[in-house]
Amino acid sequence: MGTELLAPLDLAFWHLESDAHPMHLGALAVFAPAPGPARGADAETVLELLGTRAAAIPRLRMRVRDVLLPVGGAAWFVDKDFDVHRHIGRVRLTGAEARDGDGDGSGGFMAGATRLAGELMERPLERGLPPWQMYVIGGADGGPFAVLVKLHHALADGMRAVAIGAGIFDEIAAAGRPRAGAPARRARTVPPRSWMPGPRQVAGLALGRIEDLGRAFGVGASMVRASRLDPRGTPALTASSSGTRRLATADLDLEAVRRIRRAAGGTTNDVLLAVVAGALRRWMRERGEPLPDEDPRALVPVSRRRPGQAAASGNKLSAYLLGLPVGEPDPWRRLALVRTAMDRNKSAGPFRGAGAVAVLADQLPSLAHRFGAPLAGNAARMLFDVLVTSVPLPRSALSLGGCPLRAVYPMAPLARGQSLAVALSTYGGRVRVGLVADGKALPDLDRLASCADDEVAELLALLTTR
C-alpha cells in the first residue's frame, strides 16, 4: 500500500482535533471465558494474539504526514518504523471488579471496564504514529475481559471501522488465511492506462464538479438558515468542555424494539431515536431540570457507502438533523413525531439540508480545512446538541482466542460544544448502546443509560393497551 491523499472529509476530522476534543471513534468489545475446561486464554496470550492480528491489517500500518501539494493537504504513508507494541496495551482491573460478572454486561466487571474505557477515551492518539490504539481490559486470567479499540475518525467512519476492526476476530482472521496446500493466487495483469483523461472524461468531470458545487451551496444555505446564534438547550448538554470522558452502556431487548416497530411502522432506527428522546426527557425530569423550550437537535449520521464499499478507504458520510421531541409527554406520540421527521429527511435525501455538513466539507480545499477547522468546530453547537449514530455489526457469532464475544458497545467522539454522543449497535439479540459524555457535565450518565431501558419498557407496556 503506497501513498494516499486524505480525502477532504478525512482531512476535516484530522484538523478538528484538539487536546480537549480528540476525534477518535471507539468500541468496547466484551468477551466471556471460553467454554470447556480451558476457560480461555490468559491476558498476555490475548494481548499477543491481538497484536499479531492488528499488525496484519495493512491500514493499521499507515500514518498521516503533511504534503506540499495540495497546499494544506496530508497523505497516508506506510510507517517504516511501525511497531505494533506501541499501539496495544493491557489495563488490569483489581479486586471485586476483576472477579465479578461473566462478560454478559452485568456485575462489577462491566462497571470497572466502562470506567477504565472512559478514562482511556480521554487521551488523544499520538499523531506521529498510525492513529489507533487497542487495550485489553481484564483482571484474573480465565475470567471475562474486554478490548477497547480506538481509531481516529480520519482513518474510518463507523462502517469502515467495523471492516478494519473485524480482522482481530478468530473467524475473520481464519477466513483471510490461505488454506494449507492451496495454490498461491496469481496476480491479475492489468493493461497500462494513461492517466490523461479523454475529452468525454473531462466533460463528465466538469459536469460532476458543477453539480457538487451546486449541492454544497444548497447545504451551506440550509446550514445558515438552521443555525441558532443564541442556542439555548439543556445546560448539561451545552456545558463547557472539561476534557474528561465518561462512558456508560445500556442493553435493550432487540425483540421488544422490533415489536414496537411492527406496531408503529417505520424503521427500527426510528424506534431507537424515539427511545433516545424519551430517555433524555426522563433524565431531565429526574434531575429537576425544566424541559427546554426548543427540542434538542440530534445529528444523525447517514452512510453514503454503496453496497460492497465497506472496505473502501475514507469517510463517506452525510447526516440528517432531527429535533428530539423531549417536550412531548406521550411516548407513542414521540415515536410518531420522530418517524414523520425522519421520513421527511429521507425524502429530501442525504445530500440536502443542514445536516449534510459532511457533503459541504467534501467540497472545501485542503487549506480551508487546515485553517478553518477551529471555526467550524465551534460552530457545531449552533447546529446540533447531541450526536446519535447507528453502527452496523456482523450478525455472525465472533470470538477472540476462543473466547466468545458477548457485546460490542460503540463510542462516538464529542464535537466542540457538545457533552453527549450516543452510538447504537445490534449484536447477540440486543441493542448495545454506548454513551460517551463529558465527565464533569454528565456525572450521572449511568442514570441516563437506565432511562433508555425504562423507555423501551414503557413503550412495550403501552403496546398492550393500544
The helical percent reads 25-40%
The CATH topology of the largest domain comes to Chloramphenicol Acetyltransferase
Give the full name of the CATH homologous superfamily of the largest domain. Nonribosomal peptide synthetase, condensation domain
Number of strands: 15
* SSE class: alpha+beta
Q: Compute the average pLDDT.
A: 81
End-to-end CA span: 58 Å
Low-confidence stretches: 184-198, 200-217
The neighbouring-strand order within the major sheet is: 5-6-7-2-13-12
Q: Please give the largest β-sheet.
A: 6 strands, mixed
Radius of gyration (CA) equals: 23 Å
User: In percent, how much strand structure appears in the residues?
Assistant: 15-25%
- Helix count, DSSP H or I runs of 4 or more residues: 13
Taken in chain order, the helices and strands follow as EHEHEEEHHEEHHHEHHEEHHHEEEEEH
Total domains: 2
User: Which CATH top level class of the largest domain fits?
Assistant: Alpha Beta
Q: Any idea what the CATH architecture of the largest domain is?
A: 2-Layer Sandwich
User: Quick one: overall form?
Assistant: globular
Summarize the model shown:
This protein is α+β, with helices and mostly antiparallel strands. The chain has 13 helices and 15 strands. The strands form three sheets. Strands 5-6-7-2-13-12 form a six-stranded mixed sheet, sandwiched between helices. A six-stranded mixed sheet has the order 8-15-14-11-9-10.
